[in-house]
Structure formats: C-alpha cells, structure tokens
Amino acid sequence: GCEDVEVDGLDVYTCREPRTYNGDGIDVDCCRNVRIRNCKVNTDDDSITLRANGGRLRHRPDVCEDIVIENCTLSSICNGLRLGVGTGTVRKATVRNCRVVGSRFAVCLVCGYRKEQCGTAIEDVRFENLEVEAEKFLVAYHRFTEGHTFRNIVFDGVKGRTQGDSRIYADNRWPFENFTFRNVFIPEGFDAINVRDLAVEGGDFPRREMTPARAQELNNGFLKNICHLLGIRNNLYIILWNLIFFLISCHLFISEFRLATSYLIKEFIGNRNRNQIRIGEITIVHRVFLAAH
User: Fold this and answer.
1) How far is residue 90's CA from residue 63's CA, in Å, rounded to a whole number?
2) What torsion, rounded to 10 degrees, do the Cα atoms 71, 76, 81, 83 define?
3) Regarding predicted confidence, which is higher, 286 or 158?
4) Cα–Cα distance, 201 to 210 (Å, whole number)
5) What is the predicted pLDDT for the residue at 282?
6) Dihedral, CA atoms, 114, 248, 214, 216, nearest 10 degrees?
7) Checking CA distances to 18, which of 7, 175, 180, 266 falls within 20 to 30 Å?
C-alpha cells in the first residue's frame, strides 16, 4: 500500500542451504508510483514481483500501478519477474534494460496460485530490452483462479537463450488479449492457447503450430498428458490409469507399513527375551541365597 517509492542500487541475496522458501527479493504489493533501479537480486524464490493482494488494506482498491523497473540484474531458481497473484489489478508497469539469468522462468504472469484467491488482472505492461538466460522465457496462465484476463502486454527487444518453449495458456472463458512480441530473439518459440490479437513482429520467436489435438493435450493437465504420450485417448482408460496410480501408492504404503511392523515386532520379542533372561537370573540368585541360609 505504498506510494512514491524509489529503490536504487540495492543488492538482495536470499540463497542458502537448505533452500529459502518464500525468499522473494522485492515484492511490490498494491503500490503506486514505484521506481526500482540499478539493483542486483539473487534469490531462492521470485526476484521481483508485482502483486495486487490487498487483503490487509482497508478502504483501498487492490491496484498496483505506475511501476518502473530498470537496469537490474535478476537471478532466481523460480521466477526472475513475476506479475500477478492477489485479488485486484496490476497495470501500467514498465520493465526495461534488465538481465534475467540463471532462472527457471524469466517472466511469469499468473492470476493466482490458490483456488481460494479470486485472481489478479494484468493490463498495460511493457517489457523492453531484456537479456534472458533461463529455462523458459515466458509463462502466462490463469492457474486455479477464474474471471480475470491479461491484456495489452508488449515485449519489445528481447534476446537470449532458453532450454524450452514459452507458454501462454488462457482459459477459453476469459481469453487473453493483445499480446505483442516485437524483435524478440528466442528461437525456442512459444505455444499459445485462447489469446486474441497476438502479434509477432520481427525477431526470431516462432509460434508453434497449435492443432486441435495439441490444444486438447495442453488443456487436459498432467495425467492426461501422460495418457496422450502413451496413446491413451479414452476417458475410461484415464480412469484406469488413475486406479493404477492409486494401487501403486497403496502398495508402497503397505510395504512401508510391513517394514515398520516387522521392526517393531523384532524389537518387542528381543526386549521380551531379555526380560525373561533377567527374571531367570534373579530367580537363580534367590534360590542360591535361600540354600546358603
């Protein structure tokens, strides 16, 4: 809930062993007119986030807007830049002249991480002159939340190396709108589902062919993806695969239970035998004592 904030020349390092969970670098939550410049952020979670989670604010709209992030170097085992999560809107933001290195996702746009969140809309955001070295350049998706969309998102001047394709997946009830990729040089390309007015202008950022079969595969989730790879198409077979995974889990549980039970029984029998021996020794000593007297 802050306004008129400047962060300049900050070094943030949250990496350690074991991993620092929820160790974000800089979280900008329901703030206005924020400038973040010349920072180095190396984290075990998101490096910089723009959020609209205003549950603790009273009589204030859940809006995060007028944000500029520039000349920063970001590194994260999670997301270099993450926008979204909360209950409101993230809008009017610019990220420019930044490097994102050694990260899982360079840029992540997400409505919300939990079903109980109503989600965040993301609007009028520009990414300019980014250098990327990450597993994936971009992931944009609704995840569990419903009813919000992303619109007017521009990437202008992006280059770098990634290990896999980018993914832009919207729910067909709330499609994303107006995504522009201008002079983006990420040859691994991207998949896109339910995005209106998507444009690629110059650069090397190919859109992968989205056949109906592939769209269905990507919309169906992890288990159905596995079934697709194995050539399983029928819903009955998917139910059977669920049953198989359930039985495997039960088998593993029973195996662990048997090992634990066997160990306890051995310990119990061993203790009982030792107690019997001890009782026998006491009895012999007692008899010797009586005979002596």
Assistant:
1) 6
2) -150
3) 158
4) 19
5) 44
6) -60
7) 7
* Residue 264 backbone zone (phi > 0: left; psi -120 to 50: alpha; other: beta): alpha
Comparing 266 with 187, the larger pLDDT belongs to 187
**Residue 1 banded pLDDT, cuts 50, 70, 90:** confident
Task: Give the N- to C-terminal CA distance of the chain in Å, as an integer.
Answer: 91
- Fill in the amino acid letter for 72: C
* C-alpha dist (Å) from residue 77 to 38, 41, 49, 261: 21, 12, 14, 40
Q: Would you list the DSSP string of the chain?
A: --EEEEEES-EEE---SS--TT--SEEEES-EEEEEES-EEEESS-SEEEEE--TT-SS---EEEEEEEES-EEEESSEEEEEEEESSEEEEEEEEEEEEEEEEEEEEEEEESSTTS---EEEEEEEEEEEEEEEEEEEEEEET--S--EEEEEEEEEEEEESS-EEEE--TTS-EEEEEEEEEE-TT-EEEESEEEEEEEEEE-PBPP--HHHHHHHHS-HHHHHHHHTT---HHHHHHHHHHHHHHHHHHHHHHHHHHHHHHHHHHHHHHHHHHHHHHHHHHHHHHHHHH-
What is residue 119's predicted lDDT score, i.e. its pLDDT? 82
Q: What's the CA gap between 96 and 37, in Å, rounded?
A: 10
Distance from C-alpha of 189 to C-alpha of 221, rounded to nearest angstrom: 21
239 C-beta neighbours (distance < 10 Å), count: 10
**pLDDT tens-digit profile of 177-220?**
999 999 999 999 999 988 999 999 999 999 987 666 655 555 55
SS3 57: coil
Q: Which residue from 80, 31, 73 is spatially nearest to 53, judged by alpha carbons?
A: 31
